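tokens incoming
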């Protein structure tokens, strides 16, 4: 919006065109007169109010202009992502993948394959929306089209969120400050309630609870993963979420994935874990750097998954017992 044009508008015209502007003027003790031109509104502001706010007239005008600019940027919503397509490149020996795989919003796709086969490389191709310019020569389409370079390198409206093994928090904030900061940058309403909700959900996901005032740098691997997943589900606008292994220890993995898909995220998860591998609708098998197969999780596999989860639960209980310093007697595997 042109700044001059904005300041020539009346208050009523501005509120009609930019409803969020009302929030900015909420601090005024009386509602501004609708017929007042904005430039006059600022010019006539009482010195006492300004003093109370601790701002000069010019400072307030600058803040208003910045606020309107930021709000306009946020309200200019990009087209929602409904699908992502991977167009095949080649494996490490240059053999073509011959593939066009489309994944819809709300779907989980797992990536399996031996160590060093190229799972992380595939995640990186998705993260960078590769355009035949990575070692695999793959191309990624969004909603069936080549994403424009502005979207590809966007910082504000990033398409892809990465939840990796090491979160490497750079800032020394508490968990609550971290979430609050994100919520603030997303300009969500009811900041306190949203922050509390994200922390609550993260704590439900994390096996070991943490407090809002725990520094993020002191969170365990599982706790920080839980926090990032809750954050990705509730505060991030990124429609695509990449997960590079989600270890069993300390996180409710099923609930974490359900949370993300309920928010219509497209989830790609590289894993060596059989339970996670079967939690997706499909799994890609990576071999020698190439996508060699795409397997839909069968009904039989889903039935196996339920049994594997029971087995896993039993294994977790044994793990916990050992952690508590207990000794194990004979184990009865009664998972059926
Ligand atoms: N199609 C390809 N062409 C060329 N190089 C590739 C290809 N795919 C993967 N690579 C390279 O192979 C190496 C190993 O790949 P990557 O790290 O992705 O394996 P990984 O399956 O994630 O292993 P791990 O399970 O140990 O994490 C990397 O250097 C990667 O860049």
């Amino acid at each position: 919006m042109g700044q001059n044009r904005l300041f020539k508008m009346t208050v009523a015209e501005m509120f009609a065109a930019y409803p969020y502007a009302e929030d900015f003027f909420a601090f005024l003790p009386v509602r501004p007169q609708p017929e007042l031109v904005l430039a006059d509104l600022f010019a006539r502001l009482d010195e006492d109010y300004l003093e109370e706010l601790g701002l000069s007239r010019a400072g307030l005008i600058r803040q208003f202009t910045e606020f309107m600019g930021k709000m306009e940027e946020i309200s200019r919503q990009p087209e929602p992502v409904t699908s992502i397509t991977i167009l095949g490149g080649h494996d490490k020996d240059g053999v073509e993948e011959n593939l066009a795989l489309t994944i819809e919003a709300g779907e989980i796709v797992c990536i399996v394959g031996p160590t060093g086969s190229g799972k992380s490389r595939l995640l990186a191709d998705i993260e960078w929306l590769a355009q035949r310019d990575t070692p695999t020569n793959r191309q990624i389409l969004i909603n069936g089209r080549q994403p424009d370079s502005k979207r590809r390198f966007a910082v504000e409206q990033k398409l892809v969120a990465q939840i990796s093994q090491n979160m490497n928090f750079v800032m020394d904030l508490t968990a609550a400050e971290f979430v609050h900061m994100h919520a603030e940058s997303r300009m969500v309403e009811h900041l306190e309630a949203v922050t509390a909700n994200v922390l609550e959900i993260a704590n439900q996901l994390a096996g070991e609870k943490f407090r809002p005032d725990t520094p993020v740098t002191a969170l365990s691997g599982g706790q920080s993963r839980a926090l990032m997943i809750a954050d990705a589900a509730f505060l991030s606008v990124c429609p695509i979420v990449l997960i590079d292994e989600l270890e069993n220890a300390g996180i409710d993995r099923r609930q974490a994935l359900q949370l993300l898909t309920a928010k219509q995220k497209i989830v790609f998860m590289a894993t060596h874990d059989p339970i996670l591998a079967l939690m997706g609708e499909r799994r890609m098998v990576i071999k020698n750097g190439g996508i060699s197969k795409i397997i839909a999780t069968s009904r039989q596999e889903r039935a196996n998954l339920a049994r594997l989860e029971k087995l896993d639960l039993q294994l977790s209980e044994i793990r916990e017992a050992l952690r508590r310093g207990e000794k194990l007697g004979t184990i009865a595997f009664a998972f059926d």
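note: The chain is about 40% helix and 15% strand.
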